[in-house]
């Protein structure tokens, strides 16, 4: 079968094909575009020219692409007639593209765009991103370019000013790199970007310039052109690194996978909580990314959050066939255990005391948490505490919420498994109090030690960030700065959390 296919390809190749002849007319085209740049007087650092560059895809290496669902796509380029740009026409139409992403507390963000001939004039073309696309500024900009191309006669040159240098680079200097990796490292929707580039490549007989701007519709789901003759799909094997291939495969595997119902419920809980807290409802992707936030230092806590989001923590309702069926029920409440029950409801595992202390601590930092803390609050703890861009405050919130949820979970496992849920061993108030202080003090100690640049080099924590995280919640406050500047303490430092007195022995480093 493959042999047959190969023969079929070889028969298309005909006489012209010469293996190894990778540079077909590319130099000629390059000099054409160089001339345009000069003729138009484009400034080299702020204005870029869109070049079809399809000739460079005629290489042998492009025959080997993965995820290429249009088998003969690369072959099309061989026959493609690339028009020589018209060097005589020096006129262009100047257009400005503006985009806006509006975030809502209880609904998904919405992105829209407007195109105008002058920044102070009304928009000549405007529209909203269809809901099938991710509502990002980059996608809005890409759709605006598509609409612009539709609205201008093909005989005219276009000069587009964009708000984002990133999109300009993506369509010019970095285009080949992104196309060769099937857009794997980018946050745009792959099919959509491929389609936009295909339309840009259509012979307009003129050149299109894009520049980064220096100053600040109807729902249509059928705009994605997946059959354009200039469509380049699939990743070029020859240019991929191992990690890129890994990412592409993961991405491909995730496509078409439907979110499980329990995961969906937990995602919605987290979205609702984050929306109410920050005034902006996050997307699924932002939530997933937040579960592996850099502020959550321990991998096992990230994994715990990830599993909680998927509702696969090994507790009662997930493991009904566990060899110890008695463990499925809460020893006190006799209900089937769920993450919600363990982390926010059960009266006998210390969660109530632990969250009360957490709320008091966060309040000292100006973060007001509702009582009781909900599963949504815990699941969205990797996102900011509020809309404010205060890195230290957001970091403390993430640390406190993630560490304490993990503490409650691990202590509950000990009680149910090791202590067999015995009544005497349930978590008493004083024990919850001690556990809380020990955990928060050890986090503080960890943070101080991790700022040691001599020892941890590039991996060392940023001292300013650690200072901003803990300032206002430790006592005596004046001890924080010298401890940070030395990344160590020469003796005993007394830290007091929420009016509770505790001695902390800091380990002497270096
Ligand atoms: Zn219970």
Can you walk through the features of this model?
- With 510 residues, the protein is α+β, with helices and mostly antiparallel strands.
- It folds into three domains: 1-256, Nucleotidyltransferase, domain 5 (2-Layer Sandwich); 261-427, no CATH class; 437-510, no CATH class.
- The protein contains 19 helices and ten strands.
- The protein has helices spanning 2-13, 26-40, 73-79, 137-151, 165-171, 175-180, 190-201, 242-254, 261-278, 284-291, 299-310, 339-345, 351-364, 375-379, 391-418, 429-449, 453-456, 463-470, 480-486; strands at residues 47-50, 65-66, 92-102, 110-116, 125-128, 157-162, 208-212, 235-236, 492-497, 500-505.
- The strands form three sheets. It has a six-stranded mixed beta sheet, with helices on one face.
- Helix 4 (137-151) packs parallel to helix 7 (190-201), helix 13 (351-364) packs antiparallel against helix 15 and helix 13 packs across helix 16.
- It is elongated.
- The N and C termini lie far apart (67 Å).
- The structure holds zinc ion.
- Zinc ion binds at residues 330, 332-333, 341, 346, 348.
- Zinc ion (ZN) is lined by residues 330, 332-333, 341, 346, 348.
Gyration radius (Cα, Å) is 29 Å
**Percent in helix:** 40-55%
Bound molecules: zinc ion
Count of alpha and pi helical runs = 19
- Assign the CATH class of the largest domain: Alpha Beta
Strand content: 5-15%
Mean pLDDT: 80
Major beta sheet, strand line-up = 1-7-6-3-4-5
Assembly type: single chain
């Amino acid at each position: 079968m493959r042999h047959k296919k190969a023969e079929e390809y070889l028969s298309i190749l005909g006489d012209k094909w010469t293996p190894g002849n990778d540079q077909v007319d590319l130099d000629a085209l390059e000099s054409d575009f160089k001339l345009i740049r000069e003729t138009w007087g484009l400034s080299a650092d702020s204005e870029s020219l869109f070049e079809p560059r399809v000739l460079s895809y005629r290489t042998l290496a492009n025959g080997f692409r993965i995820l290429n669902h249009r088998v003969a796509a690369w072959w099309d380029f061989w026959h493609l007639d690339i028009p020589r740009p018209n060097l005589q026409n020096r006129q262009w139409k100047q257009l400005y593209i503006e985009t806006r992403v509006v975030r809502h507390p209880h609904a998904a963000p919405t992105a829209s765009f407007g195109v105008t001939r002058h920044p102070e004039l009304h928009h000549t073309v405007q529209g909203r991103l269809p809901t099938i696309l991710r509502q990002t500024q980059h996608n809005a900009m890409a759709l605006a370019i598509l609409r612009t191309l539709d609205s201008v006669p093909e005989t005219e040159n276009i000069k587009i000013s964009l708000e984002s240098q990133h999109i300009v680079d993506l369509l010019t200097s970095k285009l080949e790199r992104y196309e060769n990796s099937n857009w794997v490292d980018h946050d745009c929707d792959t099919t959509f970007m491929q389609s936009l580039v295909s339309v840009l490549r259509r012979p307009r007989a003129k050149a299109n310039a894009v520049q980064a701007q220096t100053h600040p519709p109807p729902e249509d789901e059928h705009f994605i052109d997946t059959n354009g003759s200039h469509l380049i799909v699939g990743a070029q094997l020859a240019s991929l690194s191992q990690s890129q291939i890994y990412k592409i495969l993961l991405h491909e595997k995730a496509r078409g996978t439907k979110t499980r119902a329990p995961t969906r419920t937990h995602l919605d809980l987290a979205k609702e909580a984050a929306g109410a807290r920050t005034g902006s409802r996050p997307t699924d992707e932002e939530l997933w990314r937040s579960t592996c936030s850099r502020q959550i230092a321990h991998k096992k806590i990230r994994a715990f959050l990830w599993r909680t989001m998927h509702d696969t923590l090994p507790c009662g309702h997930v493991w009904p066939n566990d060899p110890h069926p008695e463990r499925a029920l809460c020893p006190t409440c006799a209900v089937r255990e769920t993450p919600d029950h363990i982390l926010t409801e059960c009266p006998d595992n210390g969660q109530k005391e632990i969250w009360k202390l957490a709320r008091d601590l966060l309040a000292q930092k100006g973060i007001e948490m509702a009582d009781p803390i909900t599963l949504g609050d815990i699941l969205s703890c990797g996102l900011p505490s509020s809309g404010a861009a205060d890195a230290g405050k957001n970091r403390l919130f993430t640390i406190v919420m993630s560490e304490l949820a993990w503490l409650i979970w691990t202590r509950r496992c000990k009680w149910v498994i090791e202590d067999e849920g015995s009544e005497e061993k349930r978590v008493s108030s004083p024990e919850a109090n001690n556990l809380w202080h020990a955990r928060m003090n050890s986090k503080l100690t960890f943070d101080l030690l991790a700022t040691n640049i001599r020892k941890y080099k590039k991996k060392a924590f940023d001292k300013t960030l650690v200072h901003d995280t803990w300032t206002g919640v430790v006592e005596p406050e004046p001890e924080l700065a010298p401890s940070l500047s030395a990344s160590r303490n020469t003796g005993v430092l007394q830290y007091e959390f929420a009016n509770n007195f505790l001695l902390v022995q800091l380990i002497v480093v270096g």
